């Protein structure tokens, strides 16, 4: 019980430190030392198709998936990282190949991929993202849209070197 | 009950069952779903409407279907409910196997799915209890308390499941149907005094 409380407190403190660092844009390595790696979300890997091609846009577009990729520990932005994205959209089910695509992060560790509008499926409007390239631990995310009417969704990766 | 009231009751029942189904049939989400996924959703909607019929039949509230005849229909509707749940889960499985496997193993990220799975097992248990009623050699009131306890789990689980889902059901008609199911269930449980399991006292209905 005591260890649970301690680890939760540590997590909260780490989260707070990250928030402060992010807001002030002062990612001093010494302060961000505790940046914890993002954990794979439940159901994140569902209907994953490894090796989705890098595309300019998935289908007809109209919806934006974006986020950041950073290194665990020092929080350094990671450039050129391949992020795979898929969802149930107006153009197809999660399982269908045309619903999948990948993009690379820019010099600031930011990725942004246009895709068709995500629609509610299996009870929630949600997307899937994967980092699965081998240099860092694999991470699967499954963010849920606050509203099905949203036209963008964000997800952030903090990757643990292998 | 007068003929007029009987007609009014059946028309009212047809409306409260038909309107949510019609509203779900008009859902914009359907245009982005395949036939099997659509069938899965509608099996769930139909199951929800059958949940409204079950307490009304068990309590003998429906005109022309007093307790004894009502309960014969209750058994058939119960069988249909089991079939609807099996179609619901089976068709969802075909649509996205990993999501349904997560749900059945209680490791899904979606909170509503837990309520649905609990309600599903309660439906199967209530049906088995009815099927093996004679062989179980339970006293009538003990059996009834077990069956209605499961019914309560089914109703509460299904209502929470349905309310939390963002799916094809339209919000207002879904909420109204859920309220009616809850009200009908509570009314029957109270009228039959199912918690009173002392033997030798005849039920009023």
Q: TL;DR?
A:
The complex is a heterodimer of chains A (162) and B (205). Chain A has 162 residues and is α/β, with parallel strands linked by helices.
Could you describe the 3D structure shown?
- The complex is a heterodimer of chains A (162) and B (205).
- In chain A, strands 1, 4, 7 and 8 form a four-stranded mixed sheet that branches.
- In chain A, 37% of the residues are buried.
- Chain A has one helix and eight strands, in the order H-E-E-E-E-E-E-E-E.
- Chain A has one helix at 2-24; strands at residues 63-71, 82-87, 100-104, 110-115, 127-131, 139-141, 152-154, 157-159.
- Mean pLDDT of chain A is 87; it is low at 1-6 and 17-32.
- Chain A is α/β, with parallel strands linked by helices.
- Chain B is mainly alpha-helical.
- Chain B has one domain.
- The chains are: A alpha/beta (162), B mainly alpha (205).
- The interface between A and B is medium-sized, with 21 and 21 residues.
List the helices and strands and how they pair.
The complex is a heterodimer of chains A (162) and B (205).
Chain A: H1 2-24, E1 63-71, E2 82-87, E3 100-104, E4 110-115, E5 127-131, E6 139-141, E7 152-154, E8 157-159
Chain B: H1 3-25, H2 35-58, H3 67-95, H4 97-104, H5 111-131, H6 133-136, H7 140-164, H8 171-192
Helix pairs in contact in B: 1-2, 1-8, 2-3, 2-8, 3-4, 3-5, 5-7, 7-8
Quickly list its features.
heterodimer; A: 162 residues; alpha/beta; 4-stranded antiparallel sheet; 1 helix; 8 strands; disordered N terminus; B: 205 residues; mainly alpha; 8 helices; 76% helix
The biggest sheet of chain B amounts to:
none
Succession of helices and strands of chain A = HEEEEEEEE
Radius of gyration from the alpha-carbon trace of chain A, in angstroms: 16 Å
Radius of gyration of chain B: 18 Å
Helical amount of chain B: over 70%
Portion in helices of chain A: 10-25%
Proportion of strand residues of chain A: 15-25%
- Class from helix and strand fractions of chain B: mainly alpha
The share of residues in extended strands of chain B comes to under 5%
C-alpha termini separation of chain A:
31 Å
Low-confidence stretches of chain A: 1-6, 17-32
Total number of beta strands of chain A: 8
Span between termini of chain B: 16 Å
Principal-axes geometry of chain B comes out as globular
- Uncertain segments of chain B: none
Dominant shape of chain A: globular
Mean pLDDT, all residues of chain A: 87
Supply the number of helical segments of chain B: 8
Order of helices and strands of chain B: HHHHHHHH
Q: What would you call the quaternary organization? A: heterodimer
């Amino acid at each position: 019980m005591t260890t649970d409380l301690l680890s939760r407190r540590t997590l909260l403190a780490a989260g707070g430190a990250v928030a402060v660092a992010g807001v002030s844009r002062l990612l001093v390595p010494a302060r961000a030392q505790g940046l914890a790696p993002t954990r794979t979300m439940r159901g994140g890997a569902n209907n994953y198709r490894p090796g989705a091609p890098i595309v300019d846009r998935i289908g007809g577009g109209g919806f934006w998936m974006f986020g950041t990729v950073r290194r665990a520990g020092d929080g350094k932005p990671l450039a050129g990282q391949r992020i795979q994205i898929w969802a149930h959209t107006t153009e197809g089910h999660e399982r269908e190949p045309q619903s999948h695509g990948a993009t690379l992060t820019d010099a600031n560790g930011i990725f942004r991929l246009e895709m068709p509008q995500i629609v509610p499926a299996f009870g929630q409007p949600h997307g899937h993202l994967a980092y699965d390239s081998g240099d860092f631990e694999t991470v699967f995310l499954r963010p849920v849209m606050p509203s099905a009417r949203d036209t963008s969704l964000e997800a952030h990766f903090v990757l643990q070197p292998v | 009950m007068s003929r007029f009231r009987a007609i009014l009751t059946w028309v009212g029942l047809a409306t409260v069952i038909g309107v949510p189904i019609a509203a779900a049939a008009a859902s914009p989400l359907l245009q982005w779903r395949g036939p099997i996924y659509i069938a899965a959703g509608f099996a769930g909607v139909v199951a929800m409407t059958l949940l409204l019929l079950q307490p009304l039949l068990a309590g003998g509230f429906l005109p022309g279907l007093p307790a004894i005849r009502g309960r014969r229909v209750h058994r058939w509707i119960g069988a249909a409910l089991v079939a609807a749940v099996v179609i619901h889960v089976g068709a969802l499985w075909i649509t996205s196997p990993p999501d349904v496997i997560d749900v059945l193993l209680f490791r899904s990220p979606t909170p509503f799915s837990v309520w649905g799975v609990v309600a599903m097992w309660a439906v199967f248990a209530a049906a088995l209890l009815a099927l093996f009623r004679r062989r179980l050699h339970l006293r009538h009131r003990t059996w009834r308390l077990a069956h209605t306890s499961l019914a309560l789990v089914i109703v509460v689980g299904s209502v929470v499941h349905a309310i939390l889902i963002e799916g094809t059901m339209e919000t207002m008609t879904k909420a109204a149907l859920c309220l009616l199911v809850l009200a009908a269930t509570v009314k029957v449980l109270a009228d039959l005094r199912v918690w009173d399991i002392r033997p030798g006292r005849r039920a009023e209905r």
